[in-house]
Amino acid sequence: MNLRKISVAAAGAVLALALAGCSSSVTLQGEKVGNAGEFLEEADQLFTETVANAPADSLSSSDDSRCFYEKNGEDITSVVHCGPVKILGHEGNYFPISFETKIDSDSKKILSDPQVSEAAANPAGELFRPDGKKPADIGSVAQPAGPQATQKNFAVVMPLDSVSSPLNFEDLEKRSFLKAPAANVSVAQKATNELIPGEVLSKLQGNDASSESSSGGSQEFYRPAEDQSLSMYKISVGSPDELGPKLDTGWSQPEGAKDAGLSLSIKSGSQRLNVAGSLTSVSFGTNESKTATISCSSVPCQALDGKDYLLVVSSEDSAAPSLVGTTDGKDQTVALGTGQVSSEVSSVAYERERLRQQVSAAWGTQTEEIVSQKAAGENGEPTELTFGGSVGSAYLTPFETTAGWAPEGKAWLVLQVDDMVLDEGYYSSDASVDWPKSWTAKVGKQSIAAQPEAISDRAVFEVPANLKKADVSFQPSGVVTYRHADENYSSNKKQKAFTVEKALKVEVEIP
Question: What pTM, to 2 d.p., does this model score?
Answer without folding.
Answer: 0.78
